[in-house]
Amino acid sequence: MKKHFLFIFLAFITTVYAQMPAKFTSNTILDMMNISAPPSSAKAKKAFTPGEKITAYLKYNNESCIDTLKQLGITIRTVTPSVITAVIPVSAMEEAANLQGIDCIQTSQTVKFQMDSARVATRVDDVQAAKDPIETPFLGKGVLVGVIDGGVDFTHPDFYTSDRETLRIKRVWVQGDNSGTAPENFGYGSEYKTPESITTKGTDYSYFSHGSHVMGIAAGADTINNPYYGVAREADLAFSTFESIDAGITDAIKYIYDYADEQEIPAVINMSLGTEMGPHDGTSLRDIMADEMAGEGRILVGAAGNNGLVDMHISKTFTLEDDTLFAGVAFLEGFSGVGEIQVWGDEGKSFKINVCTVDKETMRPVYKSRTFDASKSFSGSITLQKPFDQSSGFFSIVTQTSPLNNKPMAHLQLGIDEYKPNKVIGLIIIGEPGTTVHAWANENYCCFKQFLPNMDIPDNKFGVCEIGGTGKKIITVASYSTKTEIKALNGDVINSGFPIYDIAPYSNHGPSTDGRMKPDIAAPGSYIISAFNSFESNNISRVSKGTWNGKDYFYGVYQGTSMASPHVAGIIATWLQAYPKLTPDMIREVLSETAVKDAYTGDDNNNTWGYGKIDAYNGLVYILKKYTSQTDIISKNINNSWIGNRINNKLHILYFKPTPATYVNVYTDKGILVLSETVKNKACGDEYILDLSDKEKGLYLVTVISADKKETFKYLNNK
User: Fold this and answer.
1) What CATH superfamily classification does 2-108 receive?
2) Fewer CB near the last or first residue (10 Å), C or N of the chain?
3) CATH topology assigned to domain 113-307+465-623
4) What are phi and psi for residue 489, nearest 5 degrees?
5) Does residue 70 contact residue 76 with C-beta atoms inside 8 Å?
């Protein structure tokens, strides 16, 4: 009876899909079908019924369709200029896809987390110590650091001001908790907006510490255990969990930026998250939405991923002599479940694909599926015929020309009930001469392996993860080692075995498939000590503790690009303090001009290190010298008299000709005079420094008057 229902449901979905091949992306079809496993499998997902709902991205070209979507019972979450996140009833999918103004629908995919010598290596210590020519420490004051993660201890003293008087976490959104009030305009999860409600909540998840560790690196003040403080120690903090799917991350980005807009402050968001699934060219809807939300004073930083030691990629450019890619698929030993693979071709071209099983000892094929044309729309679930002795297996496949980039693709889910190591699953891909295909495996479940001599060799190239790495405005971070051995509180010695100052072997490599250099920069990720979640009972990786208000708070060690990414996010927060209008392109310019090149990185930019190792100090000096000069001048009639240069909340006035007397008046934006000074006998090349650092934070108007000239400057005191 169950098999009969499955057949009927699949037939229905396949029919729907055949009617609208251009409107759904592959994972939409996979989610709408019961194709993750046959009913007999222990890992089978249940089929969606018409009453159920799917979280999805919708690409649109006309705002008028939004109201129509709402009338269909669709819940709208985040809206950017061309993409929407929404919750769609399965029964409304077809009607939504047929709406005028809807280009395509892409359902959400699951994502995973990507995981003081580091401060010295990045020169954060020089920034915090105000090394000359920096006149004051830059600690992220007046900047919002957003973290999208899980496992944060909201009560940890790291997230208070250094005097432990004020909680710096200003907003918390726990998306999976519906016990409280949902944030406005989102309609799900629970929002916590006051110090009392945030600390009472305590933590989002008590079983791990990833989020605490990440937030501590980016902005921990470490008020109880001084060696382990973070980068932007005076920044405000906002935190959001996510629904384990990428649409939740998109909503979290919008949520954090909305709060920054409300406070009128710049913001940088860290996302130590990612997925292997996607075209890796910046055309996925999650990448488009992220790019549309990033911009001036709105920076996204992501982890490159931790699959550098795993062959989760394979590719081939076909020729007349060799038009076939033969890839072996390896599952984890003892694994029982579902592995995912995506294959992408060239725009406007096609390839053909089938699945086979081979006996490793005899090297004889046991089974070969029908051949699928990737450019033609198909979706279905097929049983593998005796691939594992008497065990059963299956694969589900969706093929289509993607509406996002006009590339043919195939999305496969491979399932086995029992792993038999003497059998091998293989993919056979045939393409036209001159075309290239790329395939990625979900390394949580499977990877590629050359089991047989005639199989192609996999690699770890083009591996930078989606979400953290492939968006065109996301700053993507690789990991290198600054510490290899640490002693835990329980006496265990933890040793990575990785060479110090070299790239961490797990750090993912680029480029993107559209030819962009990825990652953008490298930062310390092994080993890193930072805040741990005190609600977590696991103490294996704890290396230090302190006590506050009668409670023990811990610091522990993790490694990964998850740890490298928040170093960069925290550094960018200090840069935003210096110049709040920084854009992603400006950040890349700073990185290209100031990143460290050494014997490990090489002299040229590359797809392992990006621009090199981040240098917080030289980056800040570069920003102060280039981007703060003359940026706040209202009147530009300088005429070789003087210019304004705002550095460290001080207005530098440079004289280009001898001036007997200058009258300087400072007004608030309400027109109230707060300072009046007379400056006498300045020669050509002299400089006068107007220090307003003791004034209240805010906007001021400065008039500079001489015998023949009056200049007006806008001065932002962002102390």
Assistant:
1) Peptidase S8 propeptide/proteinase inhibitor I9 (3.30.70.80)
2) N
3) Rossmann fold (3.40.50)
4) -60, -30
5) yes
